Amino acid sequence: MPPPDIRIHAEHSLFGSARDQHLPDEDALSVAELIPQILAERQSLLHISEQLIAAEIAQAQPPQPAAETPPPSPPAADDGSALELFRSQKDQLVAHLGSALNETSLSLDFVSLLMSAERPRVTALTLSPHLQSTAPLGSLSADRLRPADARAAPAAAQSVGLGWKYQALRGVTALFRDAARQLRGQAAEEACYWRHVCAVVGHGEVLFKTRDPADNGRALGVQYGYGDSGLTYHDKGVGVLRRAGAEGAVAFCALAPAGAGRPAEPIARNRYTRVRVLTKVDDDYVVTGQLAAPRGELARHCGQPLLDAIERARFFLFEADLFFHLVREAKHLISYNVTIIADKIVVDAVDQVLEFESAVYDDDDDDDDNGEPGAVGAMCLDTSGGRGTDDGRAQSILVFLKLMLCAYYRYRLRLKQKMPTLHTKWKQAHSHPLLLRPLLGHTRHQLNVRLVAALVRRLCRALDPARASYSVAEDMYANLAAAPVASAFQKAVQRPVSTVTLVLARVGAPLLLHAVLEVSTTEIFVDLVVRLSVSKYKTRADLDANLDGCNVLLLEFTDLADVGESLEWALLNFLEDAA
């Protein structure tokens, strides 16, 4: 027969003071307390039914194990030994439970008393009444014991921290030192840069904002040319100031003008105007005067390389503009023995030939003759001898051309300063420099005066000396003799007017023939205009007083042959009438 089921129940007295007083007893709960608990568990009782409750009860019950064949049970002992065994096991179980409860209570009291120093309010709830009455709160504390090597660890850690701080301090010091050095260098560089800019401004240059074509960055431009005077040359004289090196040095770079779809570029080649004088010797032309390269003018330093570079660029720009106007003016003088061959202008001045060439300037070339002599029409040039006799004339010609171009700049500036009217606008649009025309015109005028005087003397020498006597007087630039010449440009820009006066007297008769040949030119300075005025006077007193004169001829010619024919006719007619 199997033993009956054994049920164990712990007495409430065994719990002692370790029982949780906050856990409610479900068997002792009232209806008012059960209803909220049921509502909290089921959430709602609206759809509850008897079938639903029965299903929940059935589901909560554990399944019944299938009927199995019970194992063979040991032979049943007697009732006395089974009861003693039960009691001994019960006593052991009770002892173990009590010991466990006591150890738990002691551990809780120990931990609570240990923590009472930090959290007295929380630990006072878990201490046993006996311990609270015997041991005050916070009476139990603890210290951590460290070995000797662990005690030295904070010192090592402090040394490491000091090392880190020292290393960081050295790094920050080095950064500040480098930043200060960099700032001092930048300040010195900027000071040097603006010192050069102030020197450029103090030199009288015009600065403006622009873009550097090298990197399209912002830069300061220099207007070193003559664009303000209304310059018609394609290069207006614009350059940029660039930083050269890390010391704040400034370099000047002249820029070529920008064209359609083409940005401004640095100027790579420099040219200057060279003048040659060739004289005809034995049907050949030899160089008798030539200008050397303008090394003396370029050697005039301002004391600073930057200003020297600007002055050098201005010099070559002026030379290029001079040759540009010479070429443009020479195109209108082709019919007056002026030839343009590549970069050379050849002017035939009857007994001499003047060459104006745009030569490339080379700083490293010490030879003054940069280029081979070119052919002038069908003339053969021989540069072997006779060189140097007309160097002064070549120099004077070049100085004259440069002065005339400067006078043109000044004239354009004065026009721009005036109130804009239709007249001033027309002058600005139609004004042009007088360079080759005055030079060629005055040269041809002097030659024409000599030819006219020689013509008059030749006609007079052809007369019979027994029948007539004559006197010939020349008055060069008679138009300037009335008043003193205030400026040399007045003589250059005005049309020259010279006179050749002939007084013919009949031998044995008081009649006199007075012929005045006024040699002048047109507005282009190179044409010949001769005005012939012939008058008769009865006495010398009437001639001196210009009284009672009789006009014989008053003509204007453009050819010396016609002048000679008319004058010869007047002379012969006078002699025949007097006879």
TrEMBL record:
Residues 60-80, 362-382 are annotated as: Disordered. Gene3D superfamilies: 6.10.250.2620. One of its GO terms (biological process) is regulation of transcription by RNA polymerase II. Residues 62-75 have a biased composition (Pro residues). Residues 362-371 have a biased composition (Acidic residues). It holds the Pfam family Med17. One of its GO terms (cellular component) is core mediator complex. The keyword Transcription applies. One of its GO terms (molecular function) is transcription coregulator activity. Its main location: nucleus. Keywords: Activator, Nucleus, Transcription, Transcription regulation. The keyword Phosphoprotein does not apply. It is found in: Nucleus. Component of the Mediator complex, a coactivator involved in the regulated transcription of nearly all RNA polymerase II-dependent genes. Mediator functions as a bridge to convey information from gene-specific regulatory proteins to the basal RNA polymerase II transcription machinery. Mediator is recruited to promoters by direct interactions with regulatory proteins and serves as a scaffold for the assembly of a functional preinitiation complex with RNA polymerase II and the general transcription factors. PANTHER family: MEDIATOR OF RNA POLYMERASE II TRANSCRIPTION SUBUNIT 17. Component of the Mediator complex. Belongs to the Mediator complex subunit 17 family. This is Mediator of RNA polymerase II transcription subunit 17. It comes from Metschnikowia bicuspidata var. bicuspidata NRRL YB-4993. The lineage of its organism: Eukaryota, Fungi, Dikarya, Ascomycota, Saccharomycotina.
